[in-house]
Every structure is written in C-alpha cells, then in structure tokens.
Amino acid sequence: MSFINYASREINCKIVYYGPGLCGKTTNLQYVYQKTAADAKGKMISLATETERTLFFDFLPLSLGEIRGFKTRFHLYTVPGQVFYDASRKLILKGVDGVVFVADSQEERYDANIESLDNLRFNLDEQGYDLDKLPFIIQYNKRDLPNVMPLDELRKDLNLKGVPDFEACAATGEGVFETLKAVAKLILIDLKKGS
Amino acid sequence: MASPQLVMYDEEFKQINIVIDKLLREANAKVIFLVDKNGQLISGVGEVERFDTTSLASLTAGNIAATGGLAKLIGEKEFSILFHEGEKDNLHISIVGGRVILVVLFDNRSSLGLVRLRVKKASDELTIIFDGLMKKAEEKEKSGTTDFPFAEITDDDIDNLFS
Is-contact A6 A66, C-beta < 8 A? Predict the structure, then answer.
C-alpha cells in the first residue's frame, strides 16, 4: 500500500518480485542495484542463507525522481522462492503495490512456475488482494539457456489475463529494466486512477 | 484492498514529531523512528543521520511481521513489544495503535524501564494522532476532495521518470 507523505512530499510504493526457487528474483534486484546511479539507490539488503538462497527477503530502495513536485520512491522486495518458506512469502506481500512474477523458462521448471503462480494468487487473496486488480507483470527469465520452453507456450499457461510480459536474462540484465519500468508505470497509473 | 492507504499531512506530521521529540528527551534515547507496518519510514528524530533509515525501516517492519507470524502460530494476536539488547546499544520496538511501529534506540545512559514507561505514554498520544489521521483520510475520500497531485499526471510525466 503506497504511502503518501504531504509533509515531505514523497510517494513510496512497494514492488514484490515473486516466483519459484532459483528463477532469478534476487538476480533481477542485483542487476538493478549495479546499474543504478549511487544517488538514486539505497543499500541493498539480502537476508540469505550461507549458500545465498534467500531466507526472508531482499530489499532495494530506489528513487526515480519527481512527478509534480512529489519524490517517487520504489521499494523493491523479493520473496524466498523455495516452497517451504511460504509463511515468509505471505508476510512480504503485505502492503504490496505491484507484483513481478519471474518465471523460469526452462522446461524442467514448468511445474514449479505453475505452482508458484497459484501460490501467489492464493497468498494475495489471503491478504485481501486480487491479483487481477493489482499492477502485475510477468517476466520469462533465463531465455539464454538451451532448454527453454517456447514463449507461446509459457504465455499460454502463465499469462492467462494478458498482462504486460517480457523476456529476460537477468544475469546479463536483458529485460530487467524493461520489467521494472513496466511495473512502476502500472503502479503510478493505478495511483492516478485511485485519486 | 487489504488496508487503507497511509496518507500523511503537514499538520499531523508536526504533531507526531513533537511527541517523538519529547519522547527522545524524556527517555534519554539516541534516536527514535516511526515506521509504517509495510516498511515505510514515517519520521525520525535524534541522531538520524548516523543510520541508514530506509534499511532500518524495512528490516524493522520485516521483524515485526515475522514475530507477528510467530505470535499467530502460538495463538497470540501479536507481540506488541520487542526488545533487542546489544553490547552498547539497545532497540525497543513497539506497535502503536495497531498500525505503526515505534523504534527507540538507546544506550546505557537510559534503561529499559524508563524507555518502557515513556513509550507507553507517547504511544497513547500517537494513537490519537494516527486515529485522527485515518479519519481525516477517510472523510476526504468520501467527500471526494483530494489534494492528491496524481489526478493530473499525464503519461508523459510518467515516461519522463524513466528517460
């Protein structure tokens, strides 16, 4: 839920990157962090295990600049993707303004994608949100790998509502900013409607 | 939607800062933060510049969310106070009015007892301010009067952010 502060003329929004384990959510944030100017970003925080699997969340604050005299800030979060961290995932969805679903394009991760997307819908519903009404973007990650599914098939099964979607390779940064821009834009348009 | 949007106006922002400024002095604390449960920093007083306030806000909210999850597992509504004791500095974290998080950082110039006592009093005052703030936002929404600048933004404004 965005926080509008008239006193400091700021708007803060929360974006959550969701998806199955090892799909590249943290890699998305790391790339954004690396490529953003120092004055536009805060510290990136990763609460991860010793083997660098996300344990609770990654967090990256970004400021995009001003709109009509208001500073716009986006807080980027990832959830832990592994199935058994479901309790933590629910917590991170609290107060979300927009969601990026990062799908793993590899054939063997097909079921994991479907399961994670169902889990996202279910967990949002539990918090009182409807995925179909939230700003929502899908990213098909790891398009550079040899064993990926064709885009059409992924789209058919994951993007039932035809939300904006992007092909990506988060490790090299391809599609990362396109995804972020798209979700930020949807959130701002949503805020505009809400007012 | 899950919870109403938090909106902060100048008037209430000043009132809040007066309360936490007083708490800072009376509790002999080093720094005090108010954080939204979703991890957004609302305000801070004291030696604020020494800390990465954005990260602090997000981690505090994560902490409260995680302990809240624990509380539910054992049949409690929430744990309204958390206390972290360090070698030099300590953190007293409490939930105010069910919605915002009050973080008090103090060292051995103060004590847990004093902080608890002063926090309790300040919490009551903050609860009143935040209740009023919620009411104000609801009324504004109902009457349709909003000074929210986003109604007038254009697609160009949004695109310019990314140029």
Answer: no
